[in-house]
Structures are given as structure tokens and as C-alpha cells.
What we know:
Structural class: mainly alpha
Distance between the termini: 59 Å
Number of strands: 2
Oligomer: single chain
Amino acid sequence: MGRRKIEMKLVRDSSSRQVTFTKRRNGVFKKANELTTLCGAEVAVIAFSPGGKPFSYGQPGVDAVANRFLRRGSVRSKPDNINGTAIEKLSQELMNLMNESEAEKKKAEMLDERLKKMNLTCSGKLPLEGLNKDQLQKLKRSLEEMKEEVRESVKQLEASSGLMLLVQKAADDKESHSNNA
């Protein structure tokens, strides 16, 4: 009979779907094992059956590979060791960035005031008909300055967000390390 190409679509019959899942799961786990053996790779495969039952394969183990993945490829021997000084430094940087963010909010309020003085509306409509060439050039310069200030604010907010994630990860790692000890 031989092999034949199977159309990739959901198997409608539930008992056939379960049989297909079992065969395919075993094939995937076999390939993962071969990858580990031939390449020395660390592999983890997790699959849930159509009935919701979990199946997993991992070399050296699913937990070890998952933890390494979550730590973005760091060595597998020990969890990240972050001392209190590093966390304090990151916390101080976070506070500085939060202060800068507050200053940027004040700048935004000031820019809003500048817009109001120039009779610009928040609806996006500019009263351009009554402006002469000099006023239009002044408006253009003001908008370009505002655009640059917004870009800087976005950069600072992105940096702040990234730092907040690092501080949170460091705190989580420290907490999990202290719970494991």
C-alpha cells in the first residue's frame, strides 16, 4: 500500500482524530529524540491531546529546557544570581526614569498650552486659511519641534518600560531563588 500524502485539515471523526494524534505525537517525540542524540540539542515538546490530556518529552528534561528558555538561553546549572546591590541600582534607575517621565508629562501640558495659544484645536483641524507665510513657517517649526520632543519622549518611555521589565524579572528571579533555597 505504501505512504500517501495526507491533506492538512482537521480530522472530523473524533476517534480517528485521537488515533492520528497518538501516531503523530509518537513521531514528533521520536524526531525530538533524534535531534537530541544527533546534535546534542536540548529539546522540550509539549502536546495536549484533543481530550486535553498533556504529553511531554524533554531532554535533559522539560522543566530544565523550559527554565532555560525563560531565562533566554543562560547556562542551565544555576538560576540567575542577582544580588541586592544590582536590584537597588536598577530600582534607582527606574525611579530616575519615572521622574523623567513626570517631567515629560509636564512638557506635554506645556505643549498643549502652546497649541492653545496658536489657536490650534485638538480635533486635528488647523485654522490655516487666516495665516500668512511667516505664521505658517512659525507653525511648521513649532510642529517640527513638537514632533522631535514626542520622539524623545517615546524613546524615554521605551527605555523606562524595558528597565521596568528588567527590575520585575530580577525581583521574580530573586524571589524564586530564595524560595528554592
